[in-house]
Each structure stands twice: as C-alpha cells, then as structure tokens.
Design goal:
Ribosomal Protein S8, Chain: A, domain 1, globular, four-stranded mixed beta sheet, about 25% helix, 2 helices, alpha+beta
Length: about 100
C-alpha cells in the first residue's frame, strides 16, 4: 500500500486559469503539453481570445507554439501581439466558437 504524500509547500492549492499563458522558464519539450492543455481549458471556459507569451530570444518557443496552433482545429486565427502586449514576443490566438466549429 503506497502512502500519499502531501504536495510540496510551493505548489498552490488552486491554479486560476486566465486568458494568458507565460512560457518564460519552460523548455521547448514542455510546450506541446502546456499549449494543448491551455487551449482545452480555454475552450471549456468559453474563452475566445488567448495571449501566449513566449519571448523574443531565438524564437524556439515561438516556433513550437506556432506549430501546435496550426494543427489545433479550435484555433481560428493567430498573430503577433500588438506592441503594448509584447509584439513579436507573444502571440494572440482567436478561438472558434465552441458550439459552431
């Protein structure tokens, strides 16, 4: 019988889902799971517009994000964010209506 351990002290009890995902600090290998879960949660919440912050850097994270967005049927459109939201260091995603794919 395995004993259930309590979560580490720095793990929050609840995670609040918003329309923004900041990928700073994540590795490219983690991006597919993060983006797919983010979009799934956004669809469940009925969100229509998302903001993904990937940073400017060498654009590896951005490349990973765009490859996933291209293949998600729920994504209507995506583009670089306006300058006040990070410009080419972040992406704005418009989702299709969950009732009308």
């Amino acid at each position: 019988m395995s004993k259930k351990l309590p979560p580490p002290p720095d793990v929050p009890d609840k995670i609040i889902i918003t329309d923004t995902l900041d990928l700073h600090g994540f590795f490219p290998e983690q991006i597919p799971e993060l983006i797919n879960t983010f979009i799934d949660n956004a669809m469940e919440l009925g969100l229509k517009q998302l903001h993904i912050i990937h940073g400017k850097g060498k654009s590896r994270l951005k490349f990973e994000v765009l490859q996933i967005l291209k293949n998600r049927p729920e994504v209507k459109q995506f583009r670089d964010a306006p300058p006040d939201l990070g410009g080419w260091g972040s992406t704005v995603v418009l989702l299709k209506d969950s009732q009308h794919p």
